[in-house]
Amino acid sequence: MAKFSGNQPIPCRGNGITTSYINRTEVTEFLLMGFSDTLEVQIIHALLFLLLYLAAVMGNLLIIMLTTLDGHLQTPMYFFLRNLSFLDFCYISVTVPKSIVNSLTHNTSISFFGCALQVFFFIDLASTEIAILTVMSYDCYVAICQPLHYEVIMKRRACVKMMVMSWLSGMICGFMHVAATFTLPFCGSNVVHQFFCDIPQLLSLLDSKVIITEIGVMVFITSLVIVCFVSITISYVSIFSTILKIPSKEGRSKTFSTCIPHLLVVTLFMISGSIAYVKPISISASKLDLLLSVFYTVVLPTLNPIIYSLRNKDMKAALRRQRGRLHGDFD
């Protein structure tokens, strides 16, 4: 809720240039929007989110376990996939558990610090995911278009460096968003029209004259996303042109099938996220906003393990080997 600070003046920026000190209401916590005011619907929402969360956690932890323990999966491709699965596990854990608790306790409040922390990790992990997907497209490009140089280019040290840069870039993006948004004065409404602290809805609570810095950050990060998207597009144009030159139909089909999971994840994640963040800021969230946010925060981290393992023969074989070892240990 918003609380008064007594007679102590609170610094609230009256315009984009000067700062005035007046008695205003300072926001110390935010109220997240639930999916419904009806108790039955809230319980259904909590149970549905819980099922999706458990599915996402189990699926991603299974991929992490298989790519860590199985000696046949110690390749750059599965190293990147392991990082992506760990990221998805963290990504869905930032928003969904809090939303489940809010629905079950009928308490939608989140502290100012908690909201800032949620924004940081959400932006950090989303930005890192885009970077990792870009790196994975490059790995696919090298494997298909430059197979003779693959081991030289994709050395373990190079792969680790790319992952470190991906995670660092996400942290920087998260810090920039938090620094630009939460240093601004939230002196009015504290109702966030979303089930988690989302940047577009937080900006709608601020005076349009004081969000120049945050808009600049959004433009900068959007530019980086566009660079990643262009890089992925260039990689896949080269990949598809190389695949079409393969004489055998079976060879083309096999090579193409290795790219489909990654391409599908990239398309779903970038399209849904771009629509949510590029569109104009609105005062209240529409049904489309809610559906998009549920899709890229809940559904995608749940689908990724299925997309990457459903048609992956190596993953299926690794699972059979681990089950065989487990049964052997019990015997």
From TrEMBL:
The keyword Membrane applies. This is Olfactory receptor 14L1. It comes from Echinops telfairi (Lesser hedgehog tenrec). It is a multi-pass membrane protein. Keywords: Cell membrane, G-protein coupled receptor, Membrane, Olfaction, Receptor, Sensory transduction, Transducer, Transmembrane, Transmembrane helix. Pfam families: 7tm_4 (PF13853). The chain crosses the membrane at residues 43-66, 78-96, 108-126, 164-186, 215-244, 256-278, 290-310. Its main location: membrane. It is found in: Cell membrane. Signal peptide: none annotated. Residues 59-308 form the G-protein coupled receptors family 1 profile domain. The keyword Methyltransferase does not apply.
